[in-house]
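User: Hello, can you help with two protein structures?

Assistant: Certainly.
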Amino acid sequence: MKKIIGIRKESKYPTEKRAPLTPSQVKKLIENSNLNVLVESSSQRVFTDEEYEKAGATVTNDLSACNIIFGVKEVPVEDLIPRKAFCFFSHTIKGQPYNMPMLKEILNRKITLLDYELVKNKDGKRIIFFGNYAGYAGMINSLWLLGRKYLSEGIETPFAKIKQAKEYKNLVEAKEEIIKAGLEIKEKGLPDEIVPLITGFTGYGNVSKGAQSIYDLLPVETIKAGDLPEFVKSGTHSKNKVYKVEFSKFDIYKHKNGKTGWDSKYVSGHPEEFESVFHEFIPYLTMLVNGIFWAPEFDKLVTKNFMKKFYTENKNPKLKVIGDITCDVEGSIELTAKITTSDNPAFVYEPLTGKIIDGWEGNGPVILAVDKLPAELPAESSGFFGNALMPFVEKLASADYTKPYENLALPEEFCNAVIAHQGELTEQFKYLLKYLV
C-alpha cells in the first residue's frame, strides 16, 4: 500500500470546493515520484473528476487502499477509515469541543492523524497554509460589504460595484474590479460625508499581509496609529485616496503599570500585565480588518461595553465594517457573536440593543466572520496550498505507518505534526485527554 495516496472529498461542508492537491500537481507526482493517486469522486470540488483522471489519477469511492489520505477540513466520523493515516486541518489542538467526537473516534479506530497547522520549518513558522487567501477573500468581501452598508444609508460609492469574492471567476478578475474602483476614487473622489476613509489592520502574518495587498490596489496613503487623532483633526485628508493604519502590539497594548521598554515577545509571555487601548482608535476608523492571533488571556480589542457607550454618545459613528478574518466568537472582536458562511456572510451588531441582524442594514457595524474564506477562491487557494505540500508528499506516501511513532520516517517538518498515531495521542498532545472525557 506504500506510495498510494488518497485525496478525499470534502464532505463536512457543502460550500467547501478546495482540494489539497490540484490535477496538475497530481500529474507531477505520478510522473516524477512514481505515486499512485486515488481521488474520491466529488461533484462539489472546484476540479472535476475528469480533470483528475486526465492527470493520471484513479477516481473512486473507496480510499481504503491508500497509505495516507489527504484532505482539507475535518473528516466526518462516518468517513474515518480504521487504521489509516489522515492529514487535514483537524482543529483539535485547543480541545475545540465541536471536534472532540471526531478525535475520540480517530483514537477508537486506531487512526494516525497529521495536522497541517503543526507543520513548521526550523524557525517555527508554518509552511503549509491558506492564510494569505483568507486575507485576499476577507478584504474583497469587506470592501463589498462597505459598499452595501453605504448604499443602505443612501450613499453611493465605487465600492458598490465590488462583488463578494465567490462571485468572481478568479482572483485576477476581483483585483481588476478593485483597481477600477480605485481609479474612480482617484479621478472623482469619495463623497464628502465619508472622508477620510480609514481602514485599520491588525496582525503581522499572512492573513493581514494578504488583506493589505488587496487594499493597496486602491490609492492608499499609510498613516501611523499615533498620528490618527491629529490627522483627522487637521482636515488635511483627501477625498481622492483612502488611508491605511497598521496596528502593532505597541499600539494596541499598554503595560498596566506604565512600564516601558518591553518587546512583542514579552507581551506574548505576560499578557496579564497588559491592557488593550485599542478603543482609543475606533472613533477614527471606517473599517477594521482583524487578522491578529488572539487567546483568551489577552484583552479584547473591541468590546461590547465600549461600543454601547460609543453608540450612545455618537449618532452616526464612522465605523461601518469589521472584517473579522480571525473568526474567534466573542474573541478579540467581542461583537463577533457567531461564525458566518459564504452563503450568509455578514450580520450587523447593534451595540445599543445587543441584537444581531443578518445582512448589512441596522444601527451598528457590519461583521464579516466567515471561517472558510479561502474556499471563496478555491482553484487558486488549492494551487497555492498544494505547492507548499508537494515537496513532502512522496516521503509521506512512503512512510510505514504500522511502525511505532518514534520509528516513522517522516519529513522533519511533519515530525511534530502527528497528533495521534495508531489510535494513541502522541506525547505532546496527551493533554487533549482531559477534553475527551
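That covers the first. Now for the second protein you mentioned:
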Amino acid sequence: MKEYRINIRFNPENEKDRMIVAYLNGLRETQNVSRNSFIIQAIYEKIVEGDRNAALIEQIRAVLQEELASASITTGPDARDEPETDFSFEVTEEDLEKSKGLLRSGLEVFG
C-alpha cells in the first residue's frame, strides 16, 4: 500500500491551535517521539476509546434492564388525599394596619 499523507493546518490566531502546536513541537524533547507517531497513536486511541465507551454503555443498559425487570416500584400515599402539612395562621389587627399603610403608600405613587 502506498504511503498515505495528510496535511494539517493550524490557525495561529486560535488559542487551542497554538497550544497544540506548542505541544507537538515539544514532543521530541519531552517524550522522545515524533509528531507523526504521536498523532497516529492519538487517533487510534480515540477510535478504540469510542468503541470501548459504546460497549460499556451497552453493558450498563443490559444490567439496568435486567435489574428493573424484577424491581417492584410502589408510590406513597396520594398527595391530594392527605396533605403533608396543615397551614393555619391568624391575622392580627396590627398586621392588618401595617398592610393598609403599605397599600396606601403604594397607591400614593399613582396620585
